[in-house]
């Protein structure tokens, strides 16, 4: 069974924090580098951060120092801690394999809205 269920989004004021979670099926998560992506209205989906199985991480421009990606390999769960949120961070956030393409299975995502 293929599954990606993102959660934890919501409405937050600028400067606030959110923690996103992604429950993934073993077929997607186990042994794979995982990533968070986001898509803002009218824009292409972009890579936010990724993490390897042992825990090496990478962050997109402007996200290092504000976002922290982590994973629980025992629970097939991916996390994204987001701090110092800005209005430009408003988007639908998705998790998937780092190697995912537009033709891959995608979950429904979780909406993050940063607004005062």
Shape: globular
**SS-derived structural category:** mainly beta
Order of helices and strands: EEEHEEEEEEE
Helix content: under 10%
Mean pLDDT: 96
List low-confidence stretches. none
User: Could you give the distance between the termini?
Assistant: 40 Å
Question: Within the largest sheet, what's the order of strands?
Answer: 2-10-9-4-5-6
Number of β-strand runs: 10
Strand content: over 45%
The helix count comes to: 1
What does the largest sheet look like? 6 strands, mixed
Based on the model shown, name its key terms.
mainly beta; 10 strands; 116 residues
What does this structure look like?
By secondary structure, this protein is mostly beta strands. Helices cover 3% and strands 46% of the residues. The protein has one helix and ten strands. The protein has one helix at 26-29; strands at residues 4-7, 10-12, 18-24, 34-39, 46-51, 57-59, 67-72, 77-82, 91-97, 110-114. The strands form two sheets. It has a six-stranded mixed beta sheet with strand order 2-10-9-4-5-6, with no helix packed on it. Strands 1-3-8-7 form a four-stranded antiparallel beta sheet. A hairpin with a 6-residue loop joins β4 and β5 (46-51). It is globular, with a radius of gyration of 13 Å.
């Amino acid at each position: 069974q293929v599954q990606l269920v993102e959660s934890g989004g919501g409405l937050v004021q600028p400067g606030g924090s959110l923690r996103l979670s992604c429950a993934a099926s073993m077929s997607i998560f186990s042994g794979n580098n995982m990533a968070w992506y986001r898509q803002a209205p009218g824009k292409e989906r972009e890579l936010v951060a990724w993490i390897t199985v042992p825990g090496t991480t990478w962050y997109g421009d402007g996200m290092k120092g504000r976002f922290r990606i982590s994973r629980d390999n025992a629970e097939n769960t991916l996390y994204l801690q987001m701090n110092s949120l800005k209005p430009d961070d408003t988007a639908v956030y998705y998790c998937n394999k780092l190697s995912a393409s537009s033709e891959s299975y995608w979950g429904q995502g979780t909406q993050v809205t940063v607004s005062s």
